[in-house]
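User: For documentation purposes, I need each entry recorded in a consistent format: the amino acid sequence on its own, followed directly by the corresponding structure tokens. There are two entries in this batch. Please keep commentary to a minimum and don't merge the entries.

Assistant: Recorded as requested. Entry 1:
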Amino acid sequence: MRAVLTLVLNIIWLVTAGFWLFLGYLAAGILAVIFIVTIPFAVASFRIGLYVLWPFGREVVDTGRSGGASTVVNVVWFLIAGLWLAIGHIGTAIAQAITIIGLPLAWANLKLIPVTCFPFGKEIVPSDRARMVPVTGR
């Protein structure tokens, strides 16, 4: 039953927000590839873009490996792409919240903003494995 619910949520998500958000992450990733130095940003953008395309059944967890360099890269990411992608999440959340059925999707959309703004030091794992991933540094 849980798998069916996850599938239905992902399909509704794909139609209402996932595809459009994915295109935003794809564009950000392509722009980052153009400048060779920003290829790590492209990798992060493509990784989050695939997550945003089909998010239910997966979760974002801290890797515990974030340090000073990760903080600096997250700040640069936020200024270049994270803020604009977060605005995309807010816009699609508003559109989803118009209907009662879309309210949980809008809430899920808003919950994606932290990983959108600060993706480095995070990992996307299946939901059943998320509880097994050790969280360090807290």
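Entry 2:
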Amino acid sequence: MKKIFGKENLEYITSLFISIFASLLIGALIMIANGRSPLVGYSALLQGAFGSKYNIATTFAKTVPLILTGLATAISFRSGISNIGGEGQLYLGAFAAAYVGITFTNLPGPIGIILAVLAGAVVGGIYAFFPALLKVKYKVDEVITTIMLNTVATLFTAYLVNYPFAASQGKMGGTEIIAEQFQLSRLVKLSKLNTSIFYMGIIAIVIYYLMEKTSFGYDSKMVGQNSLFGRYGGIKDKKQMVIAMVISGGLCGIAGVFEVVGVHYRFLQHISPGYAFDGMLIALIVRNNPIGVILMSIFFGGLKTGSISMENATGIPSELVLVIQSIIILFIAGESGFKNIYKNWRLKKVAQRKVGEENV
């Protein structure tokens, strides 16, 4: 508890809440400028995100890939290596799951699901391994390679689902439906919330324990803060980076698996609306804290679900949510600068007060 509520963490949590409040306030000003009521708009957003059993289920369905990709980003960034290729890893993991689901149709459901998860994790991990290897062996910038590999993965899977693995009925940019026994059951009628949320919860607990309670997590933190210092402390920094990157890719692959076996029941050409990029933003906002990733993912999921209801009920464009997210990121990015401005202002006030007291 002392670690969580230390002075530095409390300052950052305060900054985060101020950033969220400021972004909502600016969003309200935008509504007023367009002749809309902020009270009505935000009420509709809140109602749309958490106002009914179906809405809550829809919100939590959106948080599953956000949490997994957010944790994936957190574990790589904390280790000093940047995995920007989560979207490509998600696509390949999703396709691997679909391949299992349409090929091994004679397997029992539980075994098939486990095989799909393992396939997605392995494919995502391998796809992340190569840029990590280039980074530690040849000092090739992993940001560039992972961004480029995103495009390779999305285009490659698009080819696969439009040609060799295209559905026999119609041209919809998707595979055949996976075997029925591999399909995760829905938890709330008409919603996309499924039992993958429980598997995601188990994975999140494991990743939290790995990052916060093990020597691996400590070594990762040391390498991420100062790889040279970690090396002199006996930590194999290059090995640490590669392992973290592979785990990160595996998590993104699993996020894709759950989209196939839990949501769409097939691989689609545009299966992700950018979950990995949203997860990356979430991890950056909460400074790669695993608990923070979970809470911020729920907030982002609520914004995404509520924005659609807000647009339907009030006519306020759902894109306003993107503005709110962007402003939060802007304030968080400038946190240290704003803090320095405030401290300088306080010091100036104190100095002026002391001069006034001396003159008296």
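Summary note for entry 2:
The chain has a mean pLDDT of 91.
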